[in-house]
């Protein structure tokens, strides 16, 4: 699944799934345009691979659109960046919902719009992978804003697959179960909380970021040329138990 000579924009490339994806894409021959809000993370990534770093707060809509336009052209887009706020539903603040939606839904929309407009103008096809979660269809306690954002991302991605597919731009989601990123470690560090989850996963362990990155690479590649509009579970069999 070589991406030799291709350029891929990856958001949230400094940590977790985004970093694992950037490293794998680079090993597959791609040049990575790496977006993160943390300069130190991008500096350390640039020490490992040849990449174009862009420091950006995806919660800022105007800055996100400007950065997306400046980053074009790229061959592929991976909307990976995400955030969460852990609050019980009855204590979920409007500010929390808005902040999570801004990064998890609005930013992917803006980036995909600018990517698609550039490709359509140049008569090119392409591929977008949106990193969602199995939270898109599960109701995790204390994750109201996060679950809402991922469910909305899946729904928007299906519309994108329908409309952009007519321009030969494929759009798919990957939906990992708990993946051992810094954000997930924060949310699932309590063994009493983690044990019931592991019991529902037939493979008996949480997902590693590199395992999600491998599916992202596949969905970007020509080997997935007829895959469009899916939400791909990466969940150790959680859905069958």
Secondary-structure blueprint of this entry?
Elements: E1 7-11, H1 16-27, E2 31-36, H2 39-46, E3 51-55, H3 61-71, E4 76-79, H4 94-121, E5 126-131, H5 144-165, E6 169-176, H6 182-187, H7 191-199, H8 209-220, E7 231-234
How does this structure look, described?
- With 241 residues, this protein is an alpha/beta fold.
- It has a single domain (7-231), classed as 3-Layer(aba) Sandwich (Rossmann fold), CATH 3.40.50.
- Helix content is 45%, strand content 16%.
- The protein contains eight helices and seven strands.
- It has helices at 16-27, 39-46, 61-71, 94-121, 144-165, 182-187, 191-199, 209-220; strands at 7-11, 31-36, 51-55, 76-79, 126-131, 169-176, 231-234.
- Strand 1, helix 1 and strand 2 form a beta-alpha-beta unit.
Provide a concise account of the structure shown:
The protein has 241 residues and is an alpha/beta fold. The protein is 45% helix and 16% strand.
């Amino acid at each position: 699944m070589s991406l030799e000579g291709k350029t891929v924009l990856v958001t949230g490339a400094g940590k977790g799934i985004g970093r694992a994806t950037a490293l794998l894409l680079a090993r597959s021959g791609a040049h990575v345009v790496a977006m993160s809000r943390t300069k130190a993370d991008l500096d350390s990534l640039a020490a490992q691979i040849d990449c174009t770093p862009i420091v950006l707060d995806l919660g800022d809509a105007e800055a996100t659109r400007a950065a997306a336009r400046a980053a074009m052209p790229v061959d592929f887009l991976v909307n990976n960046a995400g955030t969460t706020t852990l609050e019980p539903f009855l204590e979920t603040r409007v500010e929390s919902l808005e902040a999570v939606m801004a990064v998890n839904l609005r930013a992917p929309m803006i980036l995909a719009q600018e990517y698609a407009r550039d490709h359509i103008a140049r008569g090119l096809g392409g591929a977008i992978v949106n990193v969602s979660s199995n939270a898109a269809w599960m109701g995790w306690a204390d994750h109201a804003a996060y679950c809402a954002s991922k469910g909305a991302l899946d729904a928007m991605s299906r519309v994108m697959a329908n409309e952009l597919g007519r321009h030969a731009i494929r759009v798919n989601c990957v939906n990992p179960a708990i993946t051992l990123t810094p954000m997930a470690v924060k949310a699932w560090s309590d063994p009493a909380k983690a044990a019931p989850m592991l019991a529902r996963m037939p493979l008996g362990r949480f997902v590693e970021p590199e395992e999600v990155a491998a599916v992202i690479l596949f969905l970007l590649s020509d080997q997935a040329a007829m895959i469009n509009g899916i939400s791909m579970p990466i969940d150790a069999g959680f859905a069958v138990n």
